[in-house]
């Protein structure tokens, strides 16, 4: 079996390397190779799109907000955030989504499928992005740094919350009173003081709590009582 031609596209120069002495034909498969990372593609357009991950080029611009994207498909998906269009439909629960990948990830909440597995600890995830985030626990990587105090973070959303300690921003407001918060979790915990909801139950007694931290503090009472009774 003949090996595939490798077509290297560096700048405007294109050349073919053939591993056989046979005459090239138009029907032979061609492979386009990225000089930066050596990945191979069977279409030139796919290579050109991939190359932008190295160059950072984003030629597609949203006229609504000015954001730029490396692929036309990403721009089209983004535009749906402005138009409100949600063409992808979950048949299980009738929810609609603007992005096919988000729909596919959502469907796994119904099927329970978790196709992305960590090679270090065998934990499984519904989305590849969740696996990549998880891997930083093992590698220790903290790619997001605060520009004000240089504190590094594993996750972008944690950095965004941290930045509010510098800016003083509190975007989450209580609909029952005038209190505002810099984290959505803090707002949710606060709202329970109005609604009376206590979702955290002590397994050792009948006590209920509005926050997980309060329940953990309560559990120490049972732990100390056990130690005292043994002594």
Automatic annotation (TrEMBL):
Q: Which residues form the C2H2-type domain?
A: 32-59, 60-87, 88-115, 116-143, 144-171, 172-199, 200-227
Keyword Mitochondrion set for record: no
Coiled coil spans: none
InterPro entries xref list: Znf_C2H2_sf, Znf_C2H2_type
Compartments, as annotated in UniProt = Nucleus
A GO term for molecular function: zinc ion binding
Q: Does the keyword Chaperone apply?
A: no
Chief location of this protein within or outside the cell: nucleus
Q: Name one GO cellular component term.
A: nucleus
* Keywords of this entry: DNA-binding, Metal-binding, Nucleus, Repeat, Transcription, Transcription regulation, Zinc, Zinc-finger
Family to which the UniProt record says this protein belongs? Belongs to the krueppel C2H2-type zinc-finger protein family.
**So what does this one do?**
May be involved in transcriptional regulation.
Provide the protein name.
Gastrula zinc finger protein XlCGF67.1-like
Where does this protein come from, organism-wise? Branchiostoma belcheri
